[in-house]
């Protein structure tokens, strides 16, 4: 972009403006940032839902693991559409664990006392963990329908039939 400046500002001395500094920065490789976001979401779900025995880097192939340790401005080889079936199986198990833990946490808190999901997760208003798992399934190349079906089964198994029907 061209920055037009008035003549009065041309003679001003001092530090470089923040706009000029921003324009001098290298462009980031957006798919690499998106890849990092998926890892952050996975780590947050593990922490927030207290999932045990999950190895986050096992959810990625060798290309995906290598991409985590590169500069965000570099163009990296990211995982392609063809994925090892073992990795896909681990991903599927992880997403189903997230859904199960979210439903279990919600139902156990509601049985203790009538508490809504927003009250149980006060800093996460509007965060629906099963929906987040379904969205994450798209990035992890897992069927969203499989995650949603598991969510409905979990709701029915915990006696939340009215939510399962929806």
From TrEMBL:
It comes from the Eukaryota. It holds the Pfam family RAB3GAP2_C. Residues 1-166 form the Rab3GAP regulatory subunit C-terminal domain. This is RBGPR protein. It comes from Donacobius atricapilla. The gene is Rab3gap2.
């Amino acid at each position: 972009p061209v920055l037009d400046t008035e003549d009065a500002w041309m003679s001003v001395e001092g530090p470089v403006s923040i706009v000029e500094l921003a324009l001098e920065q290298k462009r980031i490789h957006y798919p690499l940032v998106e890849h990092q976001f998926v890892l952050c979401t996975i780590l947050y779900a593990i922490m927030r839902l207290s999932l045990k025995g999950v190895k986050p880097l096992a959810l990625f192939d060798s290309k995906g693991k290598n991409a985590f340790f590169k500069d965000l401005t570099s163009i990296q080889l990211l995982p392609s559409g063809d994925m090892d079936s073992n990795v896909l199986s681990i991903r599927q198990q992880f997403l189903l664990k997230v859904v199960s833990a979210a439903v279990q946490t919600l139902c156990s808190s509601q049985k203790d006392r009538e508490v809504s999901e927003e009250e149980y997760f006060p800093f996460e208003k509007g965060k629906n963990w099963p929906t987040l798992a379904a969205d994450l399934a798209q990035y992890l190349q897992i069927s969203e329908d499989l995650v949603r079906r598991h969510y409905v089964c979990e709701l029915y198994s915990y006696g939340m039939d009215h939510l399962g029907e929806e």
